[in-house]
Amino acid sequence: MNEPLHIVCPHCDAVNRLAQERLSDQPTCGKCTRELFMAKPLDVSSARFAKHIGRSDIPVLVDFWAPWCGPCRTMAPAYQQAAQRLEPMVRLLKVDTESAPDVGERFNIRSIPTLALFRNGREVARQPGAMDAGGIVAWTQAQLQASTTR
């Protein structure tokens, strides 16, 4: 039998245990009773970022961006569309490098937008530059496939 997955609630940040086969069953949080997956990226602060990266058993895709960045704003709708296609197998986060500069510095983010894929608390892939929704989904799936064979 598979071990339950830890899923961090996008609303209250409680860590929930969930059987993998229930990911697609529109699960709700045991603490706040709201949905665990919203099919949209979650804007996070430094503290929330650390919790989602460190406690989630599903992969986490992060868009490092800034409000003044034209390509970041252009990619935002595509990232939203990608979330609809990737959740619940992947959690999508957005980190504003202006309001959370410590996170950008910690991961040595030098250009934005930059996508970073995390698995088990560790960065496994990075891709700078804006992409369309299909490109984001294809890149993420390819990286997940590659990281399971390493």
From TrEMBL:
It holds the Pfam family Thioredoxin. Keywords: Disulfide bond, Electron transport, Metal-binding, Redox-active center, Transport. PROSITE patterns: THIOREDOXIN_1, THIOREDOXIN_2. The keyword Metal-binding applies. InterPro entries: Thio2_N, Thioredoxin, Thioredoxin-like_sf, Thioredoxin_CS, Thioredoxin_domain. Residues 36-145 form the Thioredoxin domain. Belongs to the thioredoxin family. NCBIfam families: PRK10996.1, thioredoxin. This is Thioredoxin. It comes from Massilia soli. The lineage of its organism: Bacteria, Pseudomonadati, Pseudomonadota, Betaproteobacteria, Burkholderiales.
